[in-house]
Amino acid sequence: MKARGLVPLVVFVVMAGFLWVGLKLDPREVPSPLIDKPAPDFSLPLLDAPDAKLSPADLRGQVWLFNVWASWCVACRQEHPLLVQLARSGEVPVYGLNYKDTIPAATDWLDRFGNPYAATVVDADGRVGIDYGVYGVPETYLIDKEGTIRFKQIGPLTPVVIEKTILPLVRELNA
Amino acid sequence: MIPEIGHLALIIALCLALVQATVPMIGAARGNAVWCAAARPLALGQLTFVLLAFSCLTHAFVTNDFSVLYVADHSNSRLPLQYRIAGVWGGHEGSLLLWVTMLGGWTAAVALFSRHLPEDMSARVISVMGLVSVGFLSFMLFTSNPFDRLIPGAVEGQDLNPLLQDPGLVIHPPMLYMGYVGFSVAFAFAIAALISGRLDATWARWSRPWTVAAWSVLTIGIALGSWWSYYELGWGGWWFWDPVENASFMPWLVGTALIHSLAVTEKRGGFKTWTVLLAICAFSLSLLGTFLVRSGVLTSVHAFATDPERGVFILAFLFVVIGASLTLYAWRAPKVGLGGRFALLSRESLLLTNNVLLVAAAGSVLLGTLYPLVLDALGLGKISVGPPYFNAVFLPLMVPAIFLMGVGPYARWKKAELPELAKRLKWALASGVVAALVLPFFMGSWRPLVALGVLLAVWVIAAGGMGLVARIRATPGGFFGLPRSYLGMQIAHAGVAVVIVGITMVTAYQEERDVRMDVGDTAVVGGHTFRFDGVRGMPGPNYQSSMGTITVLDDGVATRVLHPEKRVYTVQTNPMTEAAIQSNPVRDLYVSLGEPLGGGAWSVRIYFKPFVSWIWGGAVIMALGGFTALSDSRYRLVLGRRFRPRALRRKGTEAPAR
């Protein structure tokens, strides 16, 4: 085996090394400008009681998850069992933002798949979604006692994110 | 039920691929003819089952079976039928199924048309392709099964990404994948030659038609992709140096080098190890492209759903296939003797220079594509590399390569004489220089880059044309007596010249205006007057359209009416721009709607794009050249009749210049 013949192999191995490291990085993980900023304010009607309104100020003093969902979103259905499980564990309350949806469809959806939300607010025209910089549904925000966004998940939650990132952070913020 | 049949068919195809990857290979090593003979039926059987799976998925799309997760994610009952069929490859899982189907097709084609090859050679080739297939089938079955069920089934599907609801998308991915995957044939031949230790001219001759076929299809696939982004993205660009575009362009560059290198190996027995390395690289880059697109390591406008777990799988597969091939290369290649000697100036040396330039170009594209990833991996921050880098490194490499394209066909093998070359080429060069000095003035203004583009294009055409005429005179039977492979080369080179004209002209002389238009307003772009006649609502099958009317006036007379649209798709709710394009051979008029500004006024983008269609036209000419070369009588003999290998090794019977 002569050294010259090995050159392509060496070049490839180095490149594969970088690709390996690159896999663990997320190019889309653009640090959200909202992290460590106060959660944008809103006052929206509740899904099950359109006359009542909820705003982030009402939730001061507790750590909560804010999950953006819609009945038309297939990926939401994928993450839904995780949310139900999380809500049942009682570790952190989950509030929902029903995004660009209709009330009957959303209510139906929750009846069918279970309702993990302490409350869901209705953002029919997606205006609050814009304030929160929603790229696509689902997205989830972790908001602390002072109403500051501490973490943002773009796309469906996974068991790994919940166990490794969200729950430790919740415990830390509650401590 | 039918999706389960599809799933089962994939499992059976994987089992067949496993046998195909091992039994014929062992048979070839042990000289067991029965084991070798298993290769063909296995290849055909695998294709049958992959096609069955493909039909099952198509069936699920056509019948709107939203209990299949992939269908629910990528289709909708109101999606028109042709897009429901194209939806099969509109996402990750289906793209993989398309990949595997193409691979099965190429393998079956090799199995059918390789009866003239020694039994152990064809067994090894088919076996190597089986190994690749094992990787992709298990990738699909273990991480991305297109037949996964959604329980309970969705009532309605998520709809296909509106960007992909377009006639261009119906044919672009199949062509692109057919080309990508086609390089697996040259790869398999190279690996088979390395394993058998017979790295002579014969493997080059066998793999040449396959490589040319794959290259031609890939050329069309890339051109279609460029054309699609031109009219669908609504801002008139035709190439973005996007990672996904680069992923298809790198194998093309290396494949181009491979075609030329194969010619030297076949004719002169030279460049043996280099050609093998190129064959490995071309396919490795196809695999790398698949990895880049499917793993999500890079962001891109094409970003489909991505998943790091899948990335790990492809990377491991990539590592096994490319790592093993290059190890085999490192082990075998140094034992191969050098080919015939050649002088510093000879057709060999010119082709070698061209090869090096093409590979350097591919390397610089690779560098630019992976650079953001490398920086990120080293923790040096997030950047993106854009067109300025690519244009700056790509142009200086292509200019000498294209210049040599004119000289190469004139140079003699082994040793060429400079005075003779100069004598034969001086008129071609002179006509190029004259055209470069004069032509740009007719377009309005003389600019150095335009002059360079014109010089290169005219040089290539003139040198090629003069060579062609001289060759016709010297050939008994005239034009029709020319070998098709020579004719194919000239056609493909002319195609390159046409592409150069298109790129040069549109880059230098395009005009664009972004204007606010009230009903009745006019704007003048590229010497044409555009009058905005308002926008009205139009319902579509699965979208709501706002259709604009823009009348083009020349000298105050209405000559044509354009209807650009802004569509909002009902399910995914994102707005899509449908540009209206009026095309003729020397210019495109391109109009797209921006945003409504209230009171019936809209922002409107108007482009004047001279010669832009030459870019795609040139690519089609290149591919035609490839197909012409494929129809050469030598290959027809090889493909059609049973041909004895001994006759293939006969040398010196063809005309020298090819």
Commentary on this structure:
The complex is a heterodimer of chains A (175) and B (658). Chain A has 175 residues and is an alpha/beta fold. Chain A has one domain: Glutaredoxin (3-Layer(aba) Sandwich), CATH 3.40.30.10. In chain A, the strands form two sheets. A five-stranded mixed beta sheet of chain A has the order 5-4-3-6-7. In chain A, strands 1-2 form a two-stranded antiparallel ribbon. Chain A is elongated. The N and C termini of chain A lie far apart (62 Å). Chain B has four domains: 165 residues, no CATH class; 212 residues, no CATH class; 129 residues, no CATH class; 101 residues. Chain B is built from 20 helices and ten strands. In chain B, the strands form two sheets. In chain B, strands 2, 3, 4, 5, 6 and 7 form a six-stranded antiparallel beta sheet that branches. In chain B, helix 1 packs antiparallel against helix 7 and helix 8 packs across helix 11. At the A-B interface, helix 1 of A face helix 4, helix 11, helix 12 and helix 13 of B.
Give me the CATH architecture of chain A, please.
Answer: 3-Layer(aba) Sandwich
Please compute the radius of gyration of chain B using only Cα atoms: 26 Å
Going by helix content, strand content and strand pairing, the class of chain A is alpha/beta
CATH class of chain A: Alpha Beta
Order of helices and strands of chain B: HHHHHHHHHHHHHHHHHEEEEEEEEEEHHH
**Largest interface chains and counts:** A-B, 28 and 42 residues
Q: In angstroms, what separates the terminal alpha carbons of chain B?
A: 56 Å
The overall strand count of chain B is 10
Helical segment count of chain A: 5
Which geometry of chain B do the CA atoms define? globular
Give the overall pLDDT of chain B as a whole number: 87
Strand fraction of chain A: 15-25%
What assembly state would you assign to the polypeptide chains in this entry?
heterodimer
Domain unit count of chain A: 1
Number of helices of chain B: 20
Catalogue the unreliable spans of chain A.
none
Low-confidence regions of chain B: 300-305, 637-658
Main sheet overview of chain A: 5 strands, mixed
What level of helicity do the residues of chain B show?
Answer: 55-70%
What is the domain tally of chain B? 4
How many runs of DSSP E, i.e. beta strands of chain A? 7
